[in-house]
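Slide 14.
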Amino acid sequence: MAALAQQYSGLRCPPLSSSPLSKASPLRAPQRTSFNTPATTVVSAVSVSNNPVVRERQRLKEIFEDAYDRCRTAPMEGVSFTVEDFHTAIEKYDFNSEIGTKVKGTVFYTDANGALVDITAKSSAYLPVQEACIYRIKHVEEAGILPGLYEEFVIVGENDVDDSLILSLRSIQYDLAWERCRQLQAEDVIVKGKVVGGNKGGVVAVVEGLRGFVPFSQISTKSTAEELLDKELPLKFVEVDEEQSRLVLSNRKAMADSQAQLGIGSVVLGTVQSLKPYGAFIDIGGINGLLHVSQISHDRVSDIATVLQPGDTLKVMILSHDRERGRVSLSTKKLEPTPGDMIRNPKLVFEKADEMAQTFRQRIAQAEAMARADMLRFQPESGLTLSSEGILGPLTAELPAEGVDLIDIPPAEELENV
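Slide 15: predicted structure.
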């Protein structure tokens, strides 16, 4: 019986080639099984079912068949990254590369010619140095463009050699500059503009990074374009037209607005611009005022150069202000604690300037009050009625406390430069 069983034995369980585990650990079934009698068959089946190796192979087969069915019926079941997530990721890294489109990116390299910017495109974009700032710079780092900077750029072109995009910050800054100028015009404020050029009609000044035109008719002085070059002028906006790239400015309006704030008797800081035989021209915040030789000191000044020099800084008091003609008369004589201090000790005069000016204004106020009282006292007898300027003309604070000084008026052609 044993010999017959050996003759018909030799059945093997074929390996599951599709299972990775079967390749790593080749499993073998029992070498011999007898099929001669039912008892032998039952014994063989029981021995197979009790074999742990066979049970493991059967379990792996069931897992494989289950996975195969799920792949056919529900391929995305249990997957965290869905199709919607895939489309969202594509939209995140896909952008419109047309000229004028704004993109955000991170600077990762700079050199003398510009900067490379990562804008999550198929290739990096380039920011030329001339497109890095509204002002002229030699290196992008002068505009604060360093590796790691995350900024919004605008696409202005494409490089035909490698299909990389060309970016610009300058275009965005221009839009912001025009918006700022419109705001300043609406607020009617005074700004500073540096003169960078000129022609026969006027000068060109830079304001907020934009080049504006100042006609000579809108300049308060008789200076030429060459004389004004590289100087800063107080300006006001006359016209702001971004569509026409037209920016017109006025120095006269700015000066008139500044002069309106000059009160008679107020003390201001000035700089000596030039000396003349009859006095000195003083720059007081962009306005030229005349310090007449008779208003320098109570003591006689025979030579102005012995007291003042061009470039000197000093405190002066406003004596009078002709807004229509743009003329301002100044005095240091009224600020002297004692007569002659401006010649002997000018430092003391500047230290006591505010105190002396306050005393001067009080004396002017008293003189005005007395003059009005006199007019009211004589009014009933004369039958005169008071006008807005009074009987004796306008009462202003232009009257000096010691009386009216006799001042030599300089020639008209000289005063035109005031």
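Speaker note: Residues 155 and 167 are 5 Å apart (CA to CA).
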